[in-house]
Amino acid sequence: MANYVIKEMPAGMGNGKKGRTFPKMQIYTEFDYEKVVELIHTNSPAFSQATIRGVLDTLGVVLKNYLPMGHTMKIDNLGVFSLALEFADEKAENVAQQEIKGDESKTKYHHVKVKGVNFKVDKKLIKAINKENTFERTSSNVVSRSPYTPEERQQRALQHINKHGFITLQDYANLNHLSRSAASRELSKLTSSPTSPIASNGAGSHKFWVRRK
Fold first, then answer.
1. Are 28 and 176 contacting, i.e. CB atoms less than 8 angstroms apart?
2. What's the rounded Cα separation, in Å, for the pair 109 and 197?
3. Strand 73-75's sheet: what is its strand order?
4. N or C: which end of the chain has fewer CB within 10 A?
5. How far apart are CA 30 and CA 39, in angstroms?
6. What is the pTM of this model?
7. How far apart are the C-alpha atoms of 21 and 8, rounded to whole Å?
8. Where are the alpha helices (DSSP H) in the chain?
9. In this structure, what are the phi and psi dihedrals at residue 199, rounded to the nearest 5 degrees?
10. Do the strands 2-8 and 21-25 form a parallel or antiparallel pair, or are they unpaired?
């Protein structure tokens, strides 16, 4: 069963009235590349993990090479990929606005760059997910309040590190029933002390925590 939380939309979004609520998926884990490969292999063991990596890597190359040529990429039961563009600077945007008004002749280049990759999900995937899943509102203590004391949370983290060699932000959040933001604040506070048994390594999305030497 999937879980969700209720969120409030900020003023100025949607209908512009603060107080509008919406359900948001409760995320517990972000699967990295290796985990995705492992899951695909588990569901389709006929394909080796090396083959799966090759296909995923090649898909990235194909998207990089062909989306800028004006093509979209449709993968059945998944969705359609296309490029989103933006002006590279304010000057280019101003020139384009003047052209639309008819103030200047059209120029060939406007210093445009890629803003991102759009993804429009296949409706068949949405239908299949809804058919196979029900969604339950998660209890508030999973999101904002841990049932464990700070000392217990630290010990649980150390036990995880002893077993696996390290702990990630999502691992710490899941283990102690905390939101990612609460877990991040607590780990930062915990590792700021030189006497703490836990230290951080890496940075950004590659950050993890180990037992301090």
1. no
2. 57
3. 73-75, 79-87, 112-121
4. C
5. 13
6. 0.58
7. 4
8. 33-43, 49-66, 90-100, 123-132, 140-143, 150-164, 169-176, 180-191
9. -130, 155
10. antiparallel
| Half-sphere CA count of 148, side-chain side, radius 13 A | 18
d(CA 158, CA 184): 16
- Sequence-ordered alpha helix ranges (H) in 101-149: 123-132, 140-143
Domain range summary for the chain, segments of one domain joined by +:
146-211
CATH number of 146-211: 1.10.10.10
In the structure encoding, which two tokens stand for residue 171, read together? Answer: 């691992």
Instruction: Quote the tokens at residue 179.
Output: 């939101």
Can you read off the two tokens belonging to residue 149? 């004391």
Rg (CA), the chain: 23
φ, ψ of residue 122 to 5 degrees: the values are -70, 130
For the chain, give the longest Cα–Cα distance: 69
Q: What is the pLDDT along the chain (213 residues), one digit of tens a residue?
A: 677 877 776 655 555 555 577 888 877 677 889 989 999 999 999 999 999 999 999 999 999 999 999 999 999 999 999 999 988 887 777 777 777 666 555 666 668 899 999 999 999 999 999 999 888 887 544 444 677 888 999 999 999 999 999 999 988 988 888 878 888 889 998 888 888 999 999 887 788 999 998
